[in-house]
Design goal:
11-stranded antiparallel sheet; mainly beta; 36 strands; 7-stranded antiparallel sheet; 7% helix
Length: 551
């Protein structure tokens, strides 16, 4: 029986080439279960699509290690369905059965699943109908390959497959695929970004065929946050030296994830979120800037004496050294990601490398009128959206606790300080409505987020908001592409199933200047897209306007 609606016949691996070679076509590889890696046709082209056939099974609002019912394709299906455990890797079509399920095939059952019900467990190769609400989009998960079958390990791989981490490649909120073959019989491959235990950028890209997936027969499946926690226990404390970001190239090359910003100096003063407002007023997307009273600053060569170019005041930079309070160096090597000509790296005085949020001259240069700053940042993109539509507080009642300090605040430490909190946690009651803060358009429907809770994303005027830790049942009329208005119910507050926390709405904001998935695997300090914003002062203004006071 044909399960997939997209004809796929091979596994392509596009190895990252040096920066100087990115102008030409990348030489991809094709995986065959019987022949291993083969060179692919160079005529393949990239294409961005809304949906791919790969999914992860995850039952909505379930306890940890639950399972969904997989109705088999025979007369016993209604009597004895199998139990498809959470985090199973599957393929699915849109062909529904009378109960509105999707036809699926099980690729792999993860090794990190602990079965609550060990009876009649689904296994790789099983087919059947699965409720659509248990189908979660593949790009919300990380697949770790932990072992190889004898039939796959005999072939020489272009990268170390074991202990590699795979995440679906997304660009501009769309999945990236390769289309190969002639016009009359094209073949599509879904691209995955591949990481190892030390890389902050993909070491390769993989086009995956769900019919030849022996290479994924032994896997772990994590959310991005879980994968980063696993990795943090494996990598050395000292971070690797940064390399320049390769260009996106032309034709069928796919732009890679941005380079990793370095954590702040241990002795840096902590920011009081009430002191300043973090708004999209900068030229770049990254957190570190040239912090100087002067309009320009000199950038030196490796000898720290020879000037090579000048940097603008507050220009975005990426430090390429780990911060270490024991370091005695006077200069740091940094990259200037927004420079379109070379050189784009050089050495600057260590004192000039500061977080944007902690740069005193930048604060002084910014307007002191908070309301003016916020209102200016929320100028509408669509003339039909009235300024009066902005902005409501995202919960109908004030949070029980402050979101400006403690573990609820933006930049709070996570995973023993190895990661920072990317939003604000608004404690309320489970099942209460979360509301749209402004008019906008839903760009991602309800999807699995973390520990049994879900999230959705809305493009508002001048920013994108992620409403996280919601229940799995969508509010009426809320789906991808639908418009919402300020104050409209868009979801219901949930509670993570680990038992760690009270019910909350996890609220994140993004400038909209970057593209792709909001959660970014291995991109410290937040493991989020580079245009993540601090929502604290926006929330305080909206809270005070709606409730008369704020935290």
């Amino acid at each position: 029986m044909k399960i997939m609606s997209i004809g796929l016949s091979a596994l392509i691996i596009a190895i990252l080439l040096p920066q100087s070679l990115f102008a030409g076509p990348i030489a991809p590889y094709i995986w065959s279960d019987s022949k291993g890696f083969l060179i692919a046709d160079t005529s393949c082209q990239t294409k961005q699509i809304d949906q791919v056939p790969f999914f992860v099974s995850q039952k909505p609002n379930s306890q940890l290690n639950a399972s969904s019912k997989l109705s088999r394709l025979n007369f016993l299906s209604a009597i004895l369905p199998t139990n498809l455990v959470d985090r199973s890797l599957i393929t699915a079509t849109n062909a529904p059965n009378p109960a509105d399920g999707s036809l699926v095939r099980v690729i792999s059952v993860p090794k990190n699943a602990n079965y609550l019900n060990s009876m009649n467990i689904s296994k790789a190769g099983d087919t059947g109908y699965l409720a659509k609400e248990s189908l979660q989009e593949i790009d919300n998960f990380i697949i770790e390959v932990i072992d190889l079958t004898p039939s796959t390990s005999q072939f020489k791989a272009p990268f170390h497959v074991q202990k590699s981490f795979w995440q679906a490649s997304v660009n501009n909120e769309k999945f990236v695929t390769l289309v190969c073959g002639n016009i009359t019989k094209p073949v599509s491959y879904v691209l995955f970004d591949i990481y190892d235990s030390t890389s902050t950028d993909p070491i390769a890209q993989v086009g995956l065929n769900p019919y030849e997936t022996k290479i994924l027969s032994s896997i772990y499946v994590y959310t991005s946050d879980e994968a980063n926690q696993v990795i943090s226990t494996e990598v050395p404390a000292e971070e690797p030296t940064q390399k320049p970001l390769p260009s996106s190239g032309t034709g069928k090359n796919v732009r890679l994830a941005p380079l990793k910003p370095t954590p702040p100096p241990p002795n840096s003063p902590s920011k009081n979120p009430k002191d300043t407002i973090d708004v999209p007023i900068s030229e770049g997307d990254l957190e570190y800037v040239i912090c100087s009273e002067e309009k320009t600053s000199m950038v030196f060569g490796k000898d720290l004496k020879t000037p090579i170019f000048t940097a603008k005041q507050f220009e975005s930079i990426i430090p390429s050294q780990s911060w270490d309070e024991k370091q005695k160096t006077t200069h740091l090597n940094v990259q200037f990601p927004n420079r379109k000509i070379t050189p784009n790296t050089g050495w600057v005085p260590r004192s000039l490398v500061q977080l944007r949020s902690e740069c005193a001259p930048l604060k002084k240069d910014s307007s002191s009128d908070e309301n003016a700053i916020v209102n200016d940042s929320l100028k509408t993109l669509d003339p039909k959206v009235s300024q009066k539509d902005c902005c409501k507080f995202p919960t109908k009642q004030r949070p029980f606790e402050s979101y400006t300090d403690g573990t609820q605040q933006f930049r709070a430490k996570r995973n023993k300080g190895k990661r920072r909190h990317a939003g604000c946690d608004l404690y309320r009651k489970k099942g209460e409505a979360a509301v749209a803060v402004a008019s906008g358009t839903i760009i991602r429907r309800l999807y699995y987020f973390y520990q049994g809770v879900f999230a959705l994303e809305v493009k508002h005027p001048k920013f994108i908001a992620r409403y996280g830790e919601l229940l799995g049942n969508a509010a009426k009329g809320v789906s991808k592409g639908k418009n919402v208005v300020a104050g409209q119910d868009i979801g219901y507050i949930g509670k993570v199933n680990s038992g760690c926390c009270a019910p909350m709405l996890h609220f994140e904001m993004y400038k909209g200047t970057s593209h792709g998935a909001l959660t970014r695997y291995r991109l410290p300090p937040y493991d989020r897209r580079p245009d993540v914003m601090n929502p604290t002062d926006f929330l305080r203004l909206w809270e005070k306007s709606q409730f008369g006071k704020s935290y």
